Amino acid sequence: MNTAFQLIRHLPQLIRIRHIACVCREYIVTAKIILHKKMVMSIPAKYSRLVYGLALLLVCVFPYAKLLKFPYNIPLLALICMVFFAWLEKGMSGMGFRKPGPGRVFIVRVLTGFLTLEMVFDLIIQPAIGYIFNEPADYSIYNFLEGNNRKYFLYLFYSWISAALAEEIIYRGFLLPAGEKLFRRTWIAVVVSSVIFSSAHLYQGWSGVALTFLFGIAFSLLYLRCGRNIWINIIVHGMVDSFFLTMAHTGNLTYYEKPFEFIKKLLSIH
Questions:
Q1: Number of structural domains, the chain?
Q2: Which of 14, 91, 131, 145 is most buried when burial is the number of CB atoms within 10 A of its CB?
């Protein structure tokens, strides 16, 4: 009886998740249509750089337009980027949608990327940025997740489709090759894509923007180092966000404050 009551009580939420899943399915079907070139589009090559420039401008302003509610807005932008890329490049293989490769190598790359990012950013970069900007990480906005199983699993789902999947498609899969076409230099493309990535996080304050910029650099290097395989980035990004949400759910967000306090005390000694 209790189980039936719980199911009825959470029925609206289950329907909402099913609706999101349907949206994701349509998203994937549309991508497959583009991938198999069933959508016939072409433009003269001399205008491709202009279109890439307009696409970069679109990526800059689109997150602020909020045409759709969270978590649909960023996946919609990812779909637009895929259409742009398929239009210009006659396919999406250049975005990193390729086979993972040998299973053992793929798993090692994912785990290495995840553990490196967690250790370097959580223990060194994030507390250093907090000290420089005098803005220690404040994640109190996520306190509502503590002990709330329903919202925890819902936001896990949101983070994978909006952040891990959509953001990696936009800022690494699309902006990196687009930047290379525009600026003719990979390092410039990395910097520009990371700046645009961080600009979408202005609500986190300047320390959050700086941290997100460095995350963008790190994810770009991971993408390039692993043979431009977007699936590795998507999984690593999802694992990083899942770890954070799990810390919030278990009431352990102070984990992110301790390195900052340690650095602050260490520097005050000297």
A1: 1
A2: 145
